[in-house]
Amino acid sequence: MTVKLELMTDDPEERQLAVRYWAMTETGEFEEKVIDLVPFRHITHSGTLAAHIRQLCRAYDENLICPYCDAPMEVKSRSAVKKYLQKSYHPCTDCADAHAQQKRAEQAAAAAALELQLNAYIDGLPSGPIEYGQLSDDEVLLLLALDFAISPRLTSEAFKVSDCKALAPMDIKPFIDRLRASGILRESPRSAAPDTYFLRDGKLMVNTHHIPYILTPDAHFGRSEEAMQVLLTREFSDSTALFSLWLDFASADAMCYLLDKCRAFDHDLDEKQLNEIRSTLRNSLKTHSVSQIWFVIWKNVKDAASLARLVYYTEVRATATIPGKIRRTLEKIEKEGTVIRKWDRPDYQPAGTLGMLFNELFGIDEDTPGVEVLERLTLLLPDDAVDDEALPQAESVRQLLCNALVSDTGPEMMHKFATLIREGIETHRAIAALLGNDPAPAA
Predict the structure, then answer these.
(1) How confident is the model at residue 380 (pLDDT cuts 50, 70, 90)?
(2) d(Cα 199, Cα 191) in Å, to the nearest integer?
(3) I want to staple 354 with a disulfide (CB 3.0 to 4.6 A). Which of 74, 145, 178, 418 is the partner?
(4) Which of 179, 235, 271 is nearest to 362 (CA)?
(5) What pTM value is reported for the model?
(6) Are 214 and 158 in contact (CB under 8 A)?
């Protein structure tokens, strides 16, 4: 008999029934069929009998042993009994309880170790307020855009990067990282979901996608809507910082369109290719508008898709031509002075709250050329600052005159210079344009 019984009844007839039910021959067959064991008292069906037997005894199959302690495993039905010795896939009850207890102890120890390191990490995080009045113009604009994107959450509770999708078309994390690096946003580990912070080889690790952030309080108004209202009255004047933020936003706007067109035409650009294109576009956005760059992107991605259909081109080879195609197209436009078509903003790609603020505060949108963006932002400077910068640098003047003398193009240079001045271009910007350092904006 390979089945051991633990009888749980004192009734002689029930004990005998249990023994007969589980009795086996030397060859591993059951001695009696279940149907031959009924009727038994009020039980007339074999299925009901099996359930009744489980109330009378516990059966342990000596051919099925625990993988840890080799004890016979409990079986609930005849079909579970094995004819040959083998290990169970699951531990016995005692081993399962012991392992569960050990696991709970290990989890408690791990939680204590995590709490210890997390407390130390939190103690090292900044905790005091900051002066919102000391924030730079680009930081204020980005913070206002974030407030509009997740209001009222920014001033009331923690949030994750994934909550800020309304901020810009893409590159949300770099914008958030920018505010975090400035101390405007801080980590809030106590607000994190489980498993955001964890230990690996005894070191504290974090799932960066799930980091919760909170707004650092202002020294005067704390973390409040009133603090945001004060920022709305800010007078902007730092054209350099704002223009850099615009280029970051415009690059994100352009790259979002690029990735969508690449998906549409089955182009899979790698990280290196994307970085190369991003650098090219950011530089061109100093001159052209976002909508013009969209047209350049559309044209070259479509041309690459046409190449992919040629017999001697593969999809990978065609995709690899996109960075160079975009760069050469923009170089040709600069060289020939070609007027680029403007593309309408796609319905699926909103400008986000940052784009809306650029438009609302400065009248800048996807159709505004980069040179005009800089011109409008430069107008934010106080009059005395403009006067201080109006005179060109002596080095620039010497370089322009030297170039004209060396190339014998003095008359042409003077004519172009006079034309720019008549168009209302400032002297220092006209000289920069003639030197090729800074294209002159339209008057």
Answers:
(1) confident
(2) 18
(3) 145
(4) 235
(5) 0.70
(6) yes
Backbone angles phi, psi at 59, to 5 degrees: -110, 135
Structure tokens at 391: 């005179």
Question: CB 435: neighbour CB atoms within 10 A?
Answer: 13
Contacts of 39 (CB under 8 A, 6+ apart): none
Which 3-state string (H, E, C) describes the chain?
CCEEEEECCCCHHHHHHHHHHHCECCCCCECCCHHHHCCECCECCHHHHHHHHHHHEEEEEEEEECCCCCCEEEECCHHHCCCCCEECCCCCHHHHHHHHHHHHHHHHHHHHHHHHHHHHHHHCCCCCCECHHHCCHHHHHHHHHHHHHHCCHHHHCCECHHHHCCCCCCCHHHHHHHHHHCCCEEECHHHCCCCCEEEECCEEEECHHHCCEEECCECCCECCHHHHHHHHCCCCCCHHHHHHHHHHHHHHHHHHHHHHHHHHCCCCCCHHHHHHHHHHHHHHCCCCCHHHHHHHHHHHHHHHHHHHCCCCCCHHHHHHCHHHHHHHHHHHHHHHCCCCCCCCCCCCCCCHHHHHHHHHHHCCCCCCCHHHHHHHHHCCCCHHHHHHHHCCCHHHHHHHHHHHHHHCCHHHHHHHHHHHHHCCCCHHHHHHHHCCCCCCCCC
pLDDT digits (tens, 9 = 90+) for 1-23: 589 999 999 999 999 999 999 99
Asked whether the beta carbons of 59 and 4 are under 8 A apart, the reply is yes
pLDDT tens-digit profile of 47-95?
899 999 999 999 999 999 999 999 999 999 998 999 889 999 999 999 9
